[in-house]
UniProtKB/TrEMBL annotation:
Leader peptide range in chain numbering: none
Gene3D superfamilies reported for this sequence: TolB, C-terminal domain (2.120.10.30)
Identification of the protein by name: DUF5050 domain-containing protein
Region (Disordered): 138-159
Lineage, opening ranks: Bacteria, Pseudomonadati, Bacteroidota, Flavobacteriia, Flavobacteriales
InterPro entries, A to Z: 6-blade_b-propeller_TolB-like, WD40
A family per Pfam: PD40
Record-annotated membrane-spanning stretches: none
Length: 582
């Protein structure tokens, strides 16, 4: 696995006094550095990891392996120890462990259940690490282990289950459909119990790996291991922290004080001592993998001050092994139009706003591309090379009829067409060569009306404002045909205003539904494109995405604060939806 590595009676009064005096089970309270936990007893020459404590601190469970950390598959066993008010007992193998590969124990805040992962056999005949649980018996001891049902478990591996006071279950998994190698998931504890896992989203998850995690009892602080991120101290796993604010998680921050050249993982927040317990294997200092602890309050306060809410959360609506691109919402926001090459050629498709019920609209041996909506929502405008060059066609949703829009006086290819809000005009790019294209206006039948741009450079991607008085587009007219910049054209005054001036490329603009904002794409040299938003006059330019794989082709929702994008994910383009935070 990845990075895997009868209750005693106590004197409550003595226990409380000792904890007020020592806080750390008889050890000196650390200030800023981590301290090895119970050396020689719990932290030994073997591999120990994944510590979890009861809320009163009287019991702990952890995983131990006699095999070497990071050297292939490692079999682990869960151990159990007691604190008698003065010292910890010698750990013993937990009654439910010792035969199979068990690890990542977590005792729930009510002390009644232990979740753990195991590769033990089950009725489902799984061979991956799954989440299991045992319940405390009324007379002491634990029930027989019970495997959690699918879809909490999957055909892939699950890691580090943990819970909050509400009984919500958190875990990591490398199951299919995630953002990267491994993702964090949460199962809400509803009236019917724990049922369906929810991916915790791209604020926490990334295209690399998110694994072993811990959550505070109130569910508002999350710590987890992330691997291979650019911010990492090591090439292995680093600990990150995030805080819940208004039901959104803050952008994860690397806990630089704790991370080493090795793996740092398996965080556990202990309320009874206000300590953070975690596992560390600093490969530069030693080969040991042990449990450490550190005072958490100073760490929490530091990172709370610098925590930031992401401007956007993302969910992908498609997840395929082919290309899905150029998506736009219907005028009522209920449908999504897009192009895809899933059948070998580019064709036009329609799906529900949640990505379900995909329907193919066009089917030819040539390409049909870059669809856009008629304002009625009953007709689609697209371009196709079925007659040897890019021309405009309409597709009527009611009867499936396709009609060519032609004007014999127009020489060149027609690209990136869009209807005016009234549907009586079409703005389109007329491509005459690789370095020369114009923005022109057509009537609804495809007849030429007017040339909007009049230069010998590239001018592309016209989009109408919601009131039909202005058009935005991108052009190279002022950059010697080198850099793309965004312009705003007023049909009444015939004026062009340059909105961006940023090396290297700014392109694919789209109006917000109220006309006050413009979303667009920026791409520097040797970087993938990212989504930006600016005011309609070009001010307040703000970056809203930050993904190494990039996004492009944004389209604003007609009613809500959401944006469709074409995102490069897992080797191909997918349709994703960005939801902007207010």
């Amino acid at each position: 696995m990845k990075h895997q590595m009868g209750t005693m009676k106590i004197n409550v009064t003595l226990f409380a006094l000792l904890f007020m005096s020592f806080l750390l089970y008889g050890q000196e309270k650390p200030k800023t550095s981590k301290v090895l936990f119970e050396p020689g007893n719990i932290s030994t020459k073997y591999v120990e990891y994944g510590a979890t404590f009861t809320r009163d601190g009287s019991e702990m469970y952890f995983a131990r392996s006699t095999q070497q950390w990071g050297k292939g598959d490692m079999k682990s066993t869960i151990y159990h120890a007691f604190f008698d008010g003065e010292k910890w007992s010698t750990p013993k193998i937990a009654t439910f462990s010792g035969t199979y590969d068990d690890s990542d124990p977590h005792i729930t805040p009510d002390n009644k259940t232990i979740y753990f992962i195991s590769k033990r056999p089950s009725a489902e005949n799984t061979i991956s690490s799954d989440i299991w649980k045992v319940k405390r018996k009324s007379g002491g001891g634990w029930t027989e282990p019970e495997r959690m049902p699918n879809p909490i478990n999957s055909e892939k591996s699950e890691y580090s289950p943990c819970t909050d006071l509400e009984g919500n279950l958190y875990f990591a998994s490398d199951r299919l459909g995630g953002y990267g190698q491994g993702d964090l998931y949460m199962v809400p504890n509803k009236e019917e119990g724990l049922k369906n896992p929810i991916n915790m989203g791209d604020i926490l998850n990334s295209e690399t790996g998110e694994w072993n995690l811990g959550v505070s009892a109130d569910g508002n602080t999350l710590l987890y291991e992330a691997s291979q991120r650019k911010q990492n101290v090591s090439g292995y796993g680093d600990l990150y922290i995030s805080f819940k604010r208004n039901d959104s998680w803050t952008i994860p921050q690397n806990i630089v004080e704790l991370n080493t050249s090795g793996s740092d993982l398996c965080p556990f927040l202990a309320e009874h001592t206000e300590q953070l317990y975690f596992t560390s294997s600093d490969s530069l200092k030693s080969g040991d993998t042990n449990i450490y602890h550190v005072a958490f309050d100073a760490i929490r306060k530091k990172y709370e001050k610098t925590a930031e809410i992401s401007l956007v959360s993302e969910k992908c609506l498609t997840n395929n092994a082919f290309e899905d691109r150029y998506a736009s919402y219907s005028p009522d926001g209920e449908k999504i139009l897009f192009e895809s090459n899933r059948d070998g050629t580019w064709e036009i498709y329609l799906m529900d706003k949640n990505g379900q019920n995909t329907q193919q609209l066009t089917s030819t041996i040539a390409d049909s591309r870059r669809p856009s909506w008629h304002p009625s929502g009953k007709k689609v405008l697209f371009e196709s090379n079925r007659n040897g060059k890019q021309e405009l066609f309409t597709y009527t949703l009611g009867n499936g009829k396709t009609k060519r829009l032609a004007d014999k006086t127009i020489e060149g290819e027609l690209l990136f067409a869009s209807y005016s809000p009234k549907g009586d005009k079409i703005a389109v790019s007329l491509k005459q060569s690789e370095d020369k294209s114009h923005i022109i206006l057509l009537n609804q039948k495809g007849k030429f009306l007017k040339k909007i741009t009049n230069n010998e450079k590239r001018n592309y991607y016209p989009k109408w404002s919601s009131d039909g008085t202005e058009i935005i587009y991108f052009s190279r007219k002022d950059t010697n045909n080198q850099d793309d910049e965004i312009y705003r054209y007023n049909l009444k005054t015939d004026q062009h205003i340059r909105l961006t001036n940023w090396h290297k490329h700014n392109f694919c603009p789209s109006w917000s539904n109220d006309g006050k904002k413009i979303v667009y794409v920026t791409s520097m040299e040797n970087t993938r494109p990212e989504i930006y938003i600016m005011d309609a006059d070009g001010s307040n330019q703000i970056r809203v995405t930050n993904n190494s794989n990039g996004e492009t082709l944004p389209f604003w929702h007609p009613k809500e604060n959401k944006i469709l994008v074409t995102a490069y994910r897992n080797g191909n383009y997918e349709i994703c939806e960005l939801e902007l935070q207010n």
